[in-house]
From TrEMBL:
It is found in: Cell membrane; Membrane. It comes from Angiostrongylus costaricensis (Nematode worm). It comes from the Eukaryota. One of its GO terms (molecular function) is 1-phosphatidylinositol 4-kinase activity. This is Phosphatidylinositol 4-kinase type 2.
Amino acid sequence: MNCCLQGYLSEVGASLVDKKLGLNIVPTTGLVELAAPTFYYGRVDRAKARAKERIQSRYPDLGRRFHRIGLPPKKGSFQLFVTGYQDAAHWFRIWETYPEQAPPPVTQREFQILFEKIVVLDYVIRNTDRGNDNWLIKYEQADLAETPVGANESKAAEMEAQPPDEGQLIDLKQTRTVHEPAPAEVEWADVTVPKIAIAAIDNGLAFPFKHPDEWRTYPFGWSQLPMAQKPFSEETINAILPLLDDTNFVQQLGEELKQVFKNDKGFDKKIFERQLSVMRGQIFNLKEALRTRKSPYQLILMPAQYMVEVKPKKRKQRFRSDIDDRTDCECRILKYFST
């Protein structure tokens, strides 16, 4: 399938969409320019770099005239490294093999909401390479404190019960100890709730300029999980639907993505418009799924949409026969195509 462009721009674009939607599951990713001898360079670039370095070392005055010394920088994405995470498939195997180690209900509820975030992200950017081995889970087991809550009080009581020095008068009322069992709820410290977090990495094969149309449809790896069968939670609906319903938000998102993809020397405005058409179609389906309380699995079964933005001045020329059937969503004309 040749429908995805530069992978490093896709990584940066996914981080942008993640921040704009408030998902916060993609490690911060930015666009950088770096040079290193371990990068791939052609023989010409390496020869020029060596020649400039020799000239600078032998003739410093002449070397100062060079605009750049060394290998030319290369553009790429730079993503913050996350620690303590392992791929989702690893944890699913453990929880299936050892059910007693699976998260408790309260943590499962939190995990469901996090899972829906990765569904939203992958669907909007149309990630074509999402398996359960390239999104990560950080799971911290509950801690059990084995020190009784009333340990300090018991120690103080023992100190008071120590025998007095010889010849010292004692008061029986003050030294009398009462051996009553402590209530069960204060015998032990409370058990902490397990903590869970996810990280969506490896987003380099997203933002295609067409929907996959080959024999392999590039399904989402999470679609076969039991969590994908549950309807979207109210938390996800209330957080995401208002943003996607805001046409200004969607338009601004497209403009910011354009600024990211324009960093490529081979940027093609027409190709980028096709990428936005795919993304708009994905957003259209996602809005309908959230509004009708569908599940992630039902979402991916919806017909793929392709939304083309048509300039107002071309309205009568190109779609005169479709005037009554068109949908005008944002003072712009958007044409829907099901694929």
